[in-house]
Write a structure and sequence with these properties.
The chain is an alpha/beta fold. It is built from 28 helices and 18 strands. It folds into four domains: 2-195, P-loop containing nucleotide triphosphate hydrolases (Rossmann fold, 3-Layer(aba) Sandwich), CATH 3.40.50.300; 203-394, 3-Layer(aba) Sandwich (Rossmann fold); 399-503, Winged helix-like DNA-binding domain superfamily/Winged helix DNA-binding domain (Arc Repressor Mutant, subunit A); 534-606, DNA polymerase, domain 1 (Orthogonal Bundle). The structure holds adenosine-5'-diphosphate (ADP) and zinc ion.
Length: 613
């Protein structure tokens, strides 16, 4: 164990293991098979990379995405670990060279695509001294998972060729069917299954509902201004929306790129590369984006549209904050998205399952209990406490008797013969002078203007609540017209009371909207908050700049030099000796030698200390 910890510090710069890592590694070293389920960012890689360093011989890592392979190999090499990959993008000469190094025993980790495994299973692989086989993204072997890859089904061949070598399969997909399928298809022998908590406490959870497209764009602009110089992804349901959003953000001087399956491979690679290397901070993407990248300093994720299931949602927000530093997420939820998603679900092969998944997603969006508890219980975990890091926890609902509001809304609906949707209802209540309204004669209704005293967004929130509480129903099949329910009728006639939760404006955003000069100064607080002095800010900016320069010089992504979390720790601890610098998470021997002095020099400079002797 001590030896393992020493290796962890020397090569990766970490002083301790995360939960389960040590158990998993010891299990692997006892030459037994394992299935590892950990959320994205949970630290799966260490589970096979460390044994790979420890064991004699070579470790094979099967990975489906070439971009990811490249990233991992570069990261390992930067930490002084001999690693290489074999994939279809390489020339014959490159392949020969890598093979030779492997046969000579000069490579500790070989990343290899599943196609390649099959091609090499008879000649090349048996010539190697294989001590461990790791199968990453193992859910790709299962039809049940969301990312089935036929090549993966042939990987059982590895067990045949190397019966004595332990196999560890790893995935972030947790459901039970997939789990059983992986074990069966890969022919794992009596594997131990390790399931780590799916909680990602550094990710904040926020949901806003009922905003239309224009309002969403404005909210996004404010959000991005609060996250200046931080990388983030905006997920959209439709390709066209990604491009439109890029244009709209440009009007606010926010540079973003679109990413979707309709672009050419070159365009996609360029967008991804620019994002990884911090040349562009915002990507507007369909779900296709993010799969293949391992960028650890994605600081925020926005869902422009509601996702179709909690699994998808969790996977997508999980791309933020892999380095463990605080990251923000924001999901926009609206009835119109719900309708589109319903249709998708109904037209899908697995109607019942998908409708149920959508239902649960909707319940998450509408919840007024701690959102993280809902997520964790979805993944079969029980949380004992509210998280304190979601919008519900931070602004617990304050209830009031909203019966009169419900009555006003219902009577306006009834007077239109229940022919209207949410927008029109609000216009009527607020006495708006809209052409669509007057054309239909709604300005003559008795309830026209009856809710003038409440702003538009308040009404919208309350009507969403009325739907959620079952006073009003949305007729999805019928242009989303609103219908009164029997329960609503009881409120209308004063036979039942309606408790609503008070509208609350999204505070932080509201503040900056009023004081834009403040926006630029904001930076996400690290997990353990530092006293925010201007020296800290200066130091953080300076460190980031140094990292950027080094990254450009070495032609590598900045987070490969140090993660955001590591920079934040430098700000907190202000190391001014090599010894102190070595205590920073992520500083291993190689990085200490390579970067220690320049970083210390910079820290000393910012702190006005004399140069190191
Ligand atoms: P996964 O493959 O599960 O998505 P990674 O293996 O990429 O996650 O790890 C996520 C992040 O956590 C990486 O930045 C990694 O360096 C970091 N990490 C992993 N193990 C530890 C540890 N024991 N201590 C500190 N950081 C760690
Ligand atoms: Zn919470």
């Amino acid at each position: 164990m001590e030896k393992l910890l020493a290796l962890l510090k020397q090569f990766f710069g970490y002083p301790s293991f995360r939960p389960l890592q040590a158990e998993i590694i010891q299990h692997i070293l006892s030459k037994q098979d394992a299935l590892v389920l950990m959320p994205t960012g949970g630290g799966k890689s260490i589970c096979y990379q460390l044994p790979a360093i420890y064991l004699p011989g070579i470790t094979l890592v099967i990975s489906p995405l070439i971009a990811l392979m490249k990233d991992q190999v570069e990261g390992l090499v930067a930490n002084g670990i001999p690693a290489a990959s074999l994939n279809s993008l390489m020339t014959d000469a490159e392949i020969q060279q890598v093979k030779q190094l492997c046969v000579q025993g000069k490579i500790k980790l070989l990343y290899i695509s599943p196609e390649r495994v099959k091609a090499e299973a008879d000649w090349f692989l048996p010539r190697l001294d294989v001590s461990l086989i790791a199968i990453d993204e193992a859910h790709c072997v299962s039809h049940w998972g969301h990312d089935f890859r036929p090549e993966y089904t042939q990987l059982a061949i590895l067990k045949e060729r190397f019966p004595a070598v332990p196999v560890v399969a790893l995935t972030a997909t947790a459901d039970k069917v997939t789990r059983a399928d992986i074990i069966k298809q890969l022919h794992l022998t009596d594997p131990r299954v390790f399931i780590s908590s799916f909680d990602r406490p550094n990710i904040t959870l926020n949901v806003r509902r009922g905003l239309n497209k224009r309002e969403k764009v404005h909210a996004i602009v404010r959000f991005i201004r609060l996250h200046k110089e931080q990388s983030g992804i905006i997920y959209c349901m439709k390709r066209a929306d990604t491009e439109k959003l890029v244009q709209e953000l440009a009007l606010f001087n926010i540079r973003a790129v679109a990413y979707h399956a309709g672009l050419s491979p070159t365009e996609r690679i360029t967008a991804q590369d620019d994002f990884i290397n911090d040349r562009v901070e915002v990507v507007c993407a369909t779900v296709a984006f993010g799969m293949g990248i391992d960028k650890s300093n994605i600081r925020w994720v926005i869902h422009f549209n509601m996702p179709g299931s909690i699994e998808n949602y969790y996977q997508e927000i999980g791309r933020a904050g892999r380095d463990g530093a605080k990251s923000d997420t924001l999901l926009f939820y609206s009835i119109s998205d719900l309708i589109v998603l319903r249709q998708f679900a109904e037209e899908s092969g697995q109607q019942e399952v998908n409708l149920e998944k959508l239902n649960l997603m909707q319940r998450y969006c509408e919840a007024d209990i701690c959102r993280r508890r809902i997520l964790l219980s979805y993944f079969g975990e029980e949380a004992e406490h509210d998280c304190g890091n979601c919008d519900v926890c931070q602004h617990p609902p304050i209830r009031f008797d909203g019966s009169i509001l419900v009555q006003k809304a219902l009577s306006a609906m009834i007077r239109t013969q229940q022919q209207i949707g949410i927008e029109m209802l609000i216009w009527i209540l607020r006495g708006a002078a809209r052409q669509e309204l007057t054309e239909r004669g709604y300005h003559h209704l008795k309830t026209y203007g009856a809710g003038r005293d409440l702003p538009y967004l308040h009404w919208k929130e309350y009507i969403y609540q009325m739907i959620q509480l079952g006073f009003i129903e949305v007729d999805y099949a019928n242009a989303n017209r609103l219908r009164m329910t029997p329960l609503g009728q009881r409120v209308l006639y004063g036979k039942a009371q309606a408790q609503l939760a008070q509208y609350r404006p999204p505070e932080r955003e509201e503040k900056t909207a009023k004081a834009p000069q403040e926006a630029g100064k904001f930076r996400a607080q690290p997990i353990r908050p530092i006293a925010s002095t201007s020296v800290d800010e200066q130091l953080y900016d300076a460190l980031k700049q140094l990292r950027r320069q080094l990254a450009a010089k070495e032609n590598r992504p900045a987070y490969h030099i140090f993660t955001d979390a590591a920079l934040e720790e430098m700000v907190r601890l202000k190391p001014v000796t090599l010894e102190d610098f070595n205590l920073i998470h992520g500083v291993g021997q190689i990085k200490l030698d390579k970067y220690g002095r320049v970083f210390i020099a910079l820290i000393r400079f910012v702190l006005h200390l004399p140069k190191m002797g």
